[in-house]
Amino acid sequence: PTLSPARLQLHCSENVDEEAVEQWINENSTLECCEVLSNDDIVSRVTSGSEETRIFEECLESDEENLVTHQKLSQGDGLVNTEALLNYSEQEDKRTPTEKMTLRNLRSIIRRKVN
């Protein structure tokens, strides 16, 4: 099968031969969003940190600083907001049972602290 560059992934259920995979790699390597890296490039970026990594880390630090300056919520307000989030997530079909269970557990923990 011919794979277009617009499809940035191969599905395991498709029967593709080596030629189709090579074609996909060659077409996608010319896209702006795809950068072909050698193993050495990957190791170098992970161990020394790339510019993108530094920018990302700076953004995280900035976000953490902004969180500190926000007003702290009371446990009661936290419970109200958690219940609202849980109600919202239960209305969404896209939420997994695990996500919903996590919110329910969080709500239970906050309820115990409030009471």
TrEMBL record:
It comes from the Eukaryota. This is Uncharacterized protein. It comes from Araneus ventricosus (Orbweaver spider).
